[in-house]
Amino acid sequence: MSACGGGGDPRSPGNFNIGVTVGGLFVSNTPVAPGGSINLAIHAGQSVNLDAGEPAVWTLLVGGSAITGGAQVYYAGANITATTLSPSAVVVDTYAAYPLQASIPVTLIATSTYDSAQIATVNLLITN
Questions:
Q1: For residues 98 and 71, what is the distance between their CA atoms, to the nearest angstrom?
Q2: Is residue 100 within 8 Å of residue 80, measured between CB atoms?
Q3: The pTM is what?
């Protein structure tokens, strides 16, 4: 269900573009290019799949704290889980047992392992 960010062989450098899917559907026809960003709003309970097209280090920022390597965080009434699917892909699952008091901003930053200057950002806003 994850999107292919750049096509070609994901083990070769030069394919760094983030493809984004929510509920199995592409969010944008254009992947997020290095140096770029995308802003998304999702409902608590939805998942977002991200694929950088080549190996990347994913950093999840929740409430001002950086979490790397996949984690589960409970913040402001929501469970937010980042799971590494492959060297290039991650899925972020969200869940809230009760309506959120306020929207929760979450940021995912992908840094290419081939070229650390290649960085792209996905800004999520988790809503009711």
A1: 21
A2: no
A3: 0.82
**DSSP alpha helices (H): ranges in 3-124?**
none
Enter the tokens of residue 35.
Answer: 């140096």
Q: Which helix (H) or strand (E) holds 47?
A: strand 47-51
pLDDT digits (tens, 9 = 90+) for 8-66: 444 445 688 999 998 888 887 678 999 999 999 999 999 999 999 999 999 999 988 88
Neighbours of 56 (CB within 10 A): 25
Residue with tokens 């070609």: 8
- Comparing CA positions, the residue from 10, 106, 7, 127 lying closest to residue 58 is 106
- Copy the structure tokens of residue 100: 């959120």
CB-count burial class (<10 Å; 0-12, 13-18, 19+) for 80: buried
